[in-house]
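Fig. S4 source data, part A: sequence.
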Amino acid sequence: MTIDNFGTKASQASHDNSVWRWWRGAHLATLSSQAGTPAWGWLPQGDLLTHGDQIAWVGPSTESDAALQHLLTAPERAALDPIDLHGLLVTPGLIDAHTHLVYGGHRAREFDLRLQGATYEEIARAGGGIRSTVAATREASDEALFNAALARARTLMADGVTTVEIKSGYGLSLAHEARCLRAARRIGQTLPITVRTTSLAAHALPPEFEGRADDYIDAICQWLPQWHAEGLVDAVDGFCERIAFTPAQIERVFHAARVLGLPVKLHAEQLSDSGGAALAARYAALSADHLEYLSDEGIAAMAAAGTVAMLLPGAYYFLRETKLPPIAALRAAGVPIAIATDHNPGSSPTLSLPLMLNMACTLFRLTPEEAMLGATRHAATALGLGHSHGQLRAGHRADFALWAVDHPNELAYRFGERAGRGVVAGGQLITA
């Protein structure tokens, strides 16, 4: 069997968790963390066995027959119809671990203003920025929000993404934040990808709380238990910056998250050094994100806490920033580096994670392998999924991407070109 006569579109896909599948004839970049693996976890001629939504075996094609004999019964082997991948590159499914997919409207006008000299901060202080998206989001219907976000998620999936984190943060009220989180959950129920939801109610101050930032923080701390009880929240985020909230205010939100047993993450050190990364590390944050102004103290705290550095080259590029994140210092400290689109209407309206790989290399000087690890293995850690996602490895979820290139370094080298030929998400093949 070939992928051409196997594949179905996502909307038609069916799945059986008892089915064995043999994916053969591929170049594999496993990105494995297992000791002794070569760079990229490279297997130039490799096969995979999947059982339902799990990877059961990965290895050289020459060892497939032995694996089949060991893992499958004779009737299962007789029923097996191998899927020939014809030399496609197979990598772990990409993980976009920082997005804001659920929102209304767009902010193309602000893009124009910035080109005329206005800064992101000036636009925000004049009532634009996040607040303008909040207004559009509140005006949109539930179905409009969901359908727009679903289309964005499908676009990510067509570019190799099988796991996505979706933040709220454009509702900024009890009811409207819940609407956004429900839309995000619904995407995970509609598509076969993994969706993690994050409450970012501490994103900006809504107009009804003008001049009362502490009261708004109190409100968020009261809302979180309700969203958690409804099963809407996997993690809690905040924006710690001079145009958003202070470290002391964010710490109150983090404390409320800790009481509920929810992990935290933080938009930190994007426009200034506010000490947000160190605060995040004190709460064992999954990640601290942006980090252009990250200090040595923040790096040391993140390294000690195991907090992932989430770099967002799309926002850096779109806002024409010049202050680079301290890549060399993060490397030296052993802080894992992840890469994401930061898809949002104001500062990173991109839906291409492969493009972010290229930008991470060209703008931040990551190596292609570092960038790819940042969109797979380290991104999984940044979502608390390091034990089950981000590698081609037995026991991990059967999520992988198929590419019409010879080597994974081409995924960071090429830009403006779609090399994806489909994804396997939870054992289901969805053709591009």
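Fig. S4 source data, part B ends here. The longest helix spans residues 142-158.
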